[in-house]
Amino acid sequence: MRQAMIERKTKETDIKLKLVIDEFQESRITTGIGFFDHMLKAFSIHSRMALDLECVGDLEVDDHHSIEDVGIVLGKAIQEIFQQNKIIKRFSSVYIPMDEALAFVAIDMSNRSYLVFDAEFEHQNVGEMDTQMVEEFFRALAQHAGMTLHIRLLYGKNDHHKIEAIFKAFAYALKEALSLEDSQVCLSSKGVI
How does pLDDT run across 34-47, given as a tens digit for each residue? Predict the structure, then answer.
């Protein structure tokens, strides 16, 4: 069973996270940002990864520090799991619909951090979550996970549906990219990722 436990405490946030990827259990997620919790729960369910997350952040300022720092911590947990076994499928891509919205995500677990984010939202917020923070979350996550991550929202009208399609597509793509490779051969011409 591959798992990682990460803690991060700053003057802005206090985060404890446990990620288990080979044995699904019900997740416990508390960030104080209802819509963000909903997206992380969708990620957990659709990736079949158990996420135990508690984030106490300076929400009296806004949601920026909490969401970005959760991205950092989740990225570090993914990187730690990646380091445990690099004989993985490595590449993955998926299209996921959510009602009228359609999202595409492609991942390369390459140890090279890069984010391409091509999505626009109509409103400043969905619930208490600033829609600008969707890109910031995935930027922090990709940087600290060591992944190349491409996210493209092809179309959609409802911002809730658009963001949820992105999170679900990321979940399915990450599950596949981190799945163990049967051949036990490292998928790199260099012989190492």
Answer: 999 999 999 999 99
